[in-house]
Amino acid sequence: MAAWKLRRPTQTMKTNLKRALGIILSSALTLSLLAGCGGNKLAESAAPAESAAAESGAPAASGAPIKIAVAAPMTGDNAEYGQGFYNAAVMKADEWNAKGGVLGGRQVEIVQYDDKNSSEEAASIAQKIVSEGDIAGVIGHFASGVCMTAAPVYQENKIIEISPSSSHPDYSGIGDYIFRNNTVINVEAAAGLDIAVNDLGKKNIGIISIKTDWGTNTAKIVNELVAGMADTGAKVVAHEEVMEGSDDYSPAIAKLDAAGADVVICVSMYSTLAPVAKQYKQVNPDIAIVGFSNAYTQQLLELGGDAVEGVCFPVIFYSGSDDPAVKTYVETYKEKYGAQPSALTSQAYDSVGMLLTAIESAGTTDSAKVRDELAKIDYPGVTGETTFNDIGDVQKSFVKLTIKDGQFAEANF
Amino acid sequence: MTKLNEKKTEGTGFIFQMESFLDKYKLPVCIAGAALLLAVPAFGFSQYLMRIFIMIGIYSILGMGLNILTGYTGLVSLGHAGFFAIGAYTSSLLMLRLNVPFLAAMICAACLTGAVGLLLGLPSLRLSGSYLTIVTLGFGEIVKMIIVNWDAVTNGTLGLKNIPKPAFFGVSMTLANNGLYYTMLIMVFLVAVASMAIIRSNTGRAFQAIKEDEMAATMMGIRTMRYKVLAFVISAFITGIAGAFYATLVGFIDANSFTFDVSTLIISVVIVGGMGTMRGMFLGAALLIAFPEVSRSLMEYRFVVYGLLLVVMMRFRPQGLLGWKSQMPYKLSKRAKALLAGKNEPAQTANG
Amino acid sequence: MAEVLIVQQVLNGLALGMAYALIAVGYSLVFGILRLVNFSHGSIYAFGAHAALLFVGFEFGVLPAILLSMVCTGLLGILIDKAALEPLRKKNSVPIAALITTIGVSNIIQNLLMIWFGSEKKAFPAVFNLPMIEIGGFRIQSTQLMMCVVSLILLLVLTLVINKTKIGLAMRATEQNPKAAKLMGVNVNFVISFTFFLAGASAAIAGGLISGYYQIVYPGMGFMAGLKAFAASVLGGIGSLPGAVVGGLVVGVSECLAATFINSTYRDSVAFIILIVVLIVRPTGLFGKKGITKV
Q: What separation in angstroms does the CA of B306 have from each of A408, B78, B269, B289?
């Protein structure tokens, strides 16, 4: 009994000590975390993109660097797109810096923000960008839904946002500071249908679309457009919506095949187009497939292999183009990052260019003036001549591409 | 009575000292804490930081909601993102389509979420442990699927946008005028008080009895079935409140705002903070919401760290960071004291 | 035409179901021994597929790559058990603790895969490159057929291991009563490790075969597949190998039929709805043993 009594206090003391330590540590951790939030500086791990300029002995920067934010998924399922945006933006900034910067020698700095493609993150990142106070403009947000959450914050605080990828029909209508450098769906859909009906001469159209805002909308527009083409004899025989990220499309394909489709319009990114092409060609090797420019990326060839041979797209950017500007761009990109730039990446590249040009011609980073310049810009980019319409959507012309011998090539019908 | 006093002197450690300090200066500490929280906007934090504070508040509410189910009743749910979504969508739709004011919309949303909680709670009558967890997980996925496919109501993949901010007496609550922050404070306070009240009631004790030993609880005459379903309803109700508030904060919601990751985050808040504690929910939410904001240097590794956190916590501190057992003597309610005083020297167990 | 379509969809569903069955086996094995739903199994399956992809890169051919990946993934299974789960068993922790641990492990594996291999979908070489077979107007892909054959062989081997070998006897004894098994001289920890190895190896086979079938590999592949496979194993009666196969087939076929008659976008919910209904109506599943429901 006595021994028990003797031992007990020390043990309690020990455990209490342990507990106390735990509590102190955890509260210290919270405090430091919160302090870190306030510190802001801590949060940026993004490497400033000035290295190239510094090395090439460009004129010394006069004044603070001009900061442009790239806000996109840098980690998570869609990291490939965000990384592409960032790479393209850094490359564009390096080019300007090598030429001597903007506004009489101010360097351009690209700051990376990771929204993980989540609306919640994006909203808080948008607030963060606003709080920074010295961000001249935002390139980004990848998914349309994410853009929709972030855009009101930018609009409210008069920060220019150019999304290279958003396709939500209401996106650019959110405000006059919100732009997009992505194709407008109905023009692209018409171009795709033109390939299917006029160039390939198919009449029985099957549609496979992914169930996202972009996919649903585009498929709806394609349906409407086909209905308006009744005189050519073209009709939609079946329309199947699929979840993005499922691997098995055989039920949808079996339905399309049973309905007698002879051309499939595949409204999706490359990651759905490639397996659809593979699985469809096993069922019907003669099927013709038309994709969208979002699927135009090197990975489509890697993932699709033989099955994507003959797939056609309308695109606004073609890396094999004869245009010397495009050629140097593609070569530099490949040299730097070891991959072909995709359409979306190139749209990000041009977006940065447009923003910087607008800043240069406005002669200031004052967002109201830059906005006005941006609205009337006529930018000769790698994705073609770009102008914005009155709500901030771009107008561009399309090139028809096909896949031949495992390479993208211009289609000659 | 003397036995109780004796026990009090036993504790000497830090926790005991802290607890007795808090007990002694309850009022000043509460006032100081409240003043600090109320004065936060006065420090001139950026909107970004204020937003994080509000998110911490929302996740504290989510944590308290799940805590009732997981922490006190011992039923693990991996589908709370589903309740969160139902709350957010219901209140947003009411506000957008029928112009219902925020408060009413929120209450309706919470009630509907509670009703769905009742539906999901029914299978818990027959299931236990992992099976129930899987059902909740499936529930979360089904809710997401319905949101995506029910275009007529939920606007499908396009999501709901322009969700209005709450307005009281004609004043719109925004981030800029700190209205959202104070609304959050009030809601957190109310939810905390309500959860406290539930936990300390007979119902709360029944929940805890079920967690400790369901069989024994049944033997004690607790209708475990009924209480398990009730725990689901209460938990869903609270989560629905958080959902409604989240929707007005963010202004745009779609199915992607309510993924499985959200469910994981909510349960992580409960586990890191300490299952079955109130204080833990605040710390858990603060840590887990602030962590990704400051750990941008860890970038891609932070999800790995989340995972590690769960594993390490389970291994070394399953009760959570703040999950200590109170060393204060058990306080009897006034009624119980009166009863004891009436019955001269009640029989006491001798193991003190 | 409609009948042809239905039969075609059922055939598609059977192939898909076999894929689920392959993953479901892993759940059943671990659950049988530990009464633990191993949430990380979906990620282990994705790991197996990535390991196979890695070894394919060394160019010894696809089948040896899958074999190597089986060993690696099996070892991963053992590692998870030794590092995360065994300490919990020693401490006699509550069941929730193990459940949450496996959720954490799943998070770790999936995100490490994402960091190492990138989040994008990658091409995986076809395991069997054989032409389409046409029987009476129905088209069956030979890969689908091969997948069924391989799965059946695998399940047969597993059944033999469990029923005819000494270690299998030890596994069954541990399943019945771990304490009694220990007293009878069974090395319970070894048996558990062996079970995790088997589960990991079967996940790797599933990963290799299914990736070979769809020719796609990506870190997130295990999430939905894992959940549906779990639904399949519960439907068949968790802990029972033939149950896993039947459950997988039912889930696969009903998914394809739902895609045909309702919409492809609803197919992912089908498995969960089946799961919930089964759990409410008959928690032991089709082939489940009684007394297994209390976890």
A: 42, 16, 11, 11
Helix ranges (H only) for A316-388 are: 324-337, 343-362, 367-375
Q: What is the pTM of this model?
A: 0.81
Residues sharing a CB contact under 8 Å with residue B159, sequence separation 6 or more, in sequence order = A145, A148, A213, B252, B253, B254, B255, B257
Ramachandran assignment for A196, one of left (phi > 0), alpha (psi -120 to 50 degrees), beta (any other): alpha
Q: How many domains does chain C have?
A: 1
A404 lies in a domain?
A: no
Whether A30 and A62 map to the same domain: the answer is: no
Do A174 and A55 share a structural domain? Answer: yes
Residue among A252, A278, A283 whose CB faces C264 most closely: A252
Binary contact (A119, B46; C-beta < 8 A): no
Binning pLDDT at 50, 70 and 90, where does residue A138 land? very high
CB-closest option in C273, C279, C294 to B142: C273
Q: CB contact, 8 Å: C118 with chain B? A: no
Residue C294 within a domain: no
Q: Is the pLDDT of residue A52 over 60?
A: no
Looking at CA atoms only, how far is residue A44 from chain C in angstroms? Answer: 20
Are the CB atoms for A298 and A337 separated by under 8 Å? no
Q: Tell whether B303 lies on the interface with C, counting CB pairs under 8 A.
A: yes
**C264–A299 CB contact, under 8 Å:** no
Tokens at residue B169, please? 């007496």
Q: Strand locations in chain B, DSSP E?
A: 167-168, 171-172
Query: In terms of CA atoms, which chain C residue is nearest residue A244?
Result: C265
Contact B159 A145 (CB under 8 A): yes
If asked whether residues A175 and A204 sit together in one domain, one would say no
Residue C83: DSSP 8-state: I
Give the whole-angstrom CA distance, residue A352 versus residue B112: 46
Choose one of A315, A339, A370: the last residue of a domain.
Answer: A315
- Do A236 and A130 sit in the same domain of this protein? no
Q: Closest-CA residue in chain A for C269? A: A243
At A39, the pLDDT band (50, 70, 90 cuts) reads: very low
Size of interface A-C (CB pairs under 8 A): 93
Rounded to the nearest angstrom, the minimum Cα separation between A131 and chain B is: 6
d(CA A318, CA A296): 9
User: Is C107 touching B (CB cutoff 8 A)?
Assistant: yes
Output the domain CATH number for residue C218.
1.10.3470
pLDDT confidence of residue B246: 93
Average of per-residue pLDDT across A22-29: 51
Residues A165 and A190 in one domain: no
Tens digit of pLDDT for each residue in A336-382? Answer: 888 888 888 999 999 999 999 999 898 888 889 999 998 888 888 88
Angle, helix C188-214 to helix C2-34, in steps of 10 degrees: 160
pLDDT of residue C220: 85
CATH number of the domain bearing residue A175: 3.40.50.2300
User: Domain range holding C143?
Assistant: 2-281
In a domain, C287, yes or no: no
Report the range of poorest mean pLDDT among A12-26, A336-350, A365-379, C51-65.
A12-26
The answer on A224 and A116 residing in a single domain is no
For residue C37, being part of any structural domain is answered with yes
Q: Is the pLDDT of residue A114 over 70?
A: yes
Average pLDDT rounded to a whole number, residues B307-326: 80
Report pLDDT digits (tens) over B22-49. Answer: 777 878 888 888 888 888 887 877 778 8
| A408 falls within a domain | no
- Are A235 and A137 within one domain? no
CB burial string B37-56: b at 16+ within 10 A, e below:
beebeeeebbbbbbbbbbbb
Its domain, for residue A280, covers 185-315
Is there a domain that residue A400 lies in?
no
Element (H, E) at B185: helix B179-200
Asked whether residue A406 is assigned to any structural domain, the reply reads no
Number of domains in chain A: 3
